[in-house]
Amino acid sequence: MKRNQLHKVLFFLGFILCASSFIPAPAALVGGFLFTLFFGHPFPDLSHKATSLLLKVSVVGLGFGMNATAAFKAGKDGFLLTLASLVLILVLGYLVGRWLKIPTKLSHLVACGTAICGGSAIAAVAPVVNANEKEVSMSLGVVFLLNSIALILFPFMGHFLGLTEYNFGLWSAIAIHDTSSVVGAASAYGEEALMVATTVKLARALWIIPISFLSVFLFKGKGKKTVIPWFILLFVATMLFNSYYPMGINATFFKISKSLLVATLFLIGSSLSITSIKEVGLKPLVLGVILWGIISVLSLVAIVGWVDLH
Asked: How far apart are CA 39 and CA 248, in angstroms?
């Protein structure tokens, strides 16, 4: 068997192993990164499309394990936190970006990725602000790198700080960039954390729409289309179905979706390389770290202090 074919077989086996429910989410992400580091990525052209599709499918499937009443309560608790953090991060992204002398479009993309839902927000906003390929790739690199660190760091920090599953779910939904890592970190923390985190994060992702329109106004991007995340509506539909028509098969779909998500994290980790990290650049990375640090600390303080009073 040729070396390239062997790498493809090993990559496929790694993906299947991560989908077997025996591998935790953080380990799947690190495993994908280490595979690419030592063997290279055998499917570079297909990985991004497959990752995007599998993530959406797994998130929709998670609705089969959630109760609408509890989920809507979590969404209500997270609404004010979401709104406050969105405004704060977008304003700070502009101010800190100017201080670091980063191009305005690049700092806006990093801020949107941090404030809303990582790569999905950047992909939605980039066309309406006429961002070039380098600005998009650098902002995606910043968010992707910090997002990967968060998946590993947050469950450890949650246990160290003694956070309840409910509070951890809120915190991860507000402070972790991408939906994949939010769900991955929360699933490692517990079932209640997963329910809260998924609901709040997907509600947060809907802010892509008004933020895209705001970006059109700020950057004079007239005639640009706004991407609507339709898979979120499908998630709501599966959650409502599970709440009003509970069946044994629903739990099976939920379990399969959790396993599929872990396998998707393996693909996400395999897309992160040393080269892509180096290409990010120091200033955008500093901006991302500052914004991430602020939203992580302030949201944690707000959740522990405010949510516990309600």
From this structure: 42
Q: Give the whole-angstrom CA distance, residue 266 versus residue 278.
A: 21
Q: Residue 104's domain spans which residues?
A: 3-309
Closest to 120 (Cα-Cα) out of 45, 199, 52: 52
pTM of the model: 0.76
How far is 98 from 236, CA to CA, in rounded Å?
39
pLDDT tens digits, one per residue of 227-276:
666 777 787 788 888 888 877 787 888 888 878 878 887 887 787 777 76
Contacts of 89 (CB under 8 A, 6+ apart): 111, 114, 115, 291, 294, 295
CB crowding 156-173: b at 16 or more within 10 Å, else e: ebbeeeebbbbbbbbbbb
What does the block give as tokens for 179?
Answer: 């939906």
| Tokens linked to 226 | 């706004």
Q: How many domains does the chain have?
A: 1
